[in-house]
Specification:
mainly alpha, two-stranded antiparallel ribbon, 2 helices, 5% strand, globular
Length: 84
């Protein structure tokens, strides 16, 4: 994230970049993290896992907005893998 943040910072000065790690250990990558443990082929279980993550993710985002005095209209969530 540091490299990506530095590159984007050149285009978007005065922007805060945060990489939020998934809460679960990744069984395929020893140091990796992931958001979901279910494969995408198990839709009912996947939806249950997403619903279980919603409250804690919203609380984290609310804390981030308050800490950095950012309005919710100024936040964008992006990622390129399950871990970020």
């Amino acid at each position: 994230m540091e490299i990506v943040g530095a590159l984007l910072g050149q285009i978007l000065p005065k922007t805060l970049f945060v990489a939020i790690e998934g809460p679960l250990a990744c069984k395929n990558i020893s140091l990796g993290k992931q958001w979901l443990k279910t494969s995408k082929n198990k839709k009912p279980q996947l939806l249950k896992e997403i619903k279980n993550l919603t409250l804690s993710l919203n609380q984290y985002l609310d804390h981030l907005l308050k800490t950095h005095h950012i309005s919710s209209e100024k936040i964008a969530l992006v990622g390129f893998s399950q871990g970020a």
